[in-house]
Amino acid sequence: MRAQFVLSEIGVGLRRNLTMTFAVIVSVALSLALFGGSLLMSDQVNTMKGYWYDKVNVSIFLCNKSDAESDPNCAKGAVTDDQKKQIKTDLDKMSVVDTVSYESQDDAYKHYKEQFGDSPLAASLTPDQMQESYRIKLKDPEKYQVIATAFDGRDGVQSVQDQKGILDNLFGLLNGMNWAARAVMALMLVVALMLIVNTVRVSAFSRRRETGIMRLVGASGFYIQAPFIAEAAVAGLIGGTVACGFLVVARYFIIDHGLALSEKLNLINFIGWDAVLTKLPLILATSLLMPALAAFFALRKYLKV
């Protein structure tokens, strides 16, 4: 096959259907930008989970005198020294526990004043109204239920709380947004495929005379189809390159500069450039293969060779 002929046919086809080629490039660029963005969003959520789940604690709150009067879980009275020692001993024996720290009523009162000192309620609180607690860091944050089963309802224990539950609501929202982006991406991919098929169909129809002559002189089916497939692949590749540019520019201006979220939101561990760069080859490969395959199957119907 003469490469010069194929390249010339690609150029002719792209020029003849310039408007539709532009539409293919835009639709492929948007759909693959959403595709890459959804992959990066998943990486970001996983990074945040790893960062925050490693810091969350399970808290065992102990009964105080006030709880003994108002809370059914503390009906047997405030926690005793023997009960506290037994809880600590049992925690130390558990294989899922990494570290255990004790917070006294005075420590809890001090921490409350530091965080909510401006609240009107802070002035009316006294240390004896605060709860003692054990703060447990787990080796695996998913093992919270092991602690809850062992200590919830025990004498002297007011409640067992898992900070991970608070984060789960946030991550659930982020995952929901990510799935919404994937749904839009899927819709855009369908639109892009329909445009590619229609563009190939129009291109094949406009050059039916040339393909008829080529068929008469004995050209093979692949030789006739190759320029059309290459046109779709080139248009898709251009769209994929634009999508990669979108992702790089978005990462640069949203996280590093411009909005500079990495500086303004220090509590969030943002994904690095390595996560972005590893997605670019996948996007480029998809932008090349998807249009080429769509054109190949479209030609089997619209170009009889």
Automatic annotation (TrEMBL):
Alphabetical UniProt keywords = Cell cycle, Cell division, Cell membrane, Membrane, Transmembrane, Transmembrane helix
- Gene3D superfamilies with a match to the protein in the record: 3.30.70.3040
UniProt-listed InterPro entries: ABC3_permease_C (IPR003838), FtsX (IPR004513), FtsX_actino (IPR047929), FtsX_ECD (IPR040690)
Q: Where is the FtsX extracellular domain?
A: 56-160
Spell out where the chain crosses the membrane: 21-41, 179-200, 221-254, 280-299
What protein family is recorded? Belongs to the ABC-4 integral membrane protein family. FtsX subfamily.
Q: What name does UniProt use for this protein?
A: Cell division protein FtsX
Task: Say which species the protein is native to.
Answer: Streptomyces aurantiogriseus
Tell me the lineage of the source organism.
Answer: Bacteria, Bacillati, Actinomycetota, Actinomycetes, Kitasatosporales
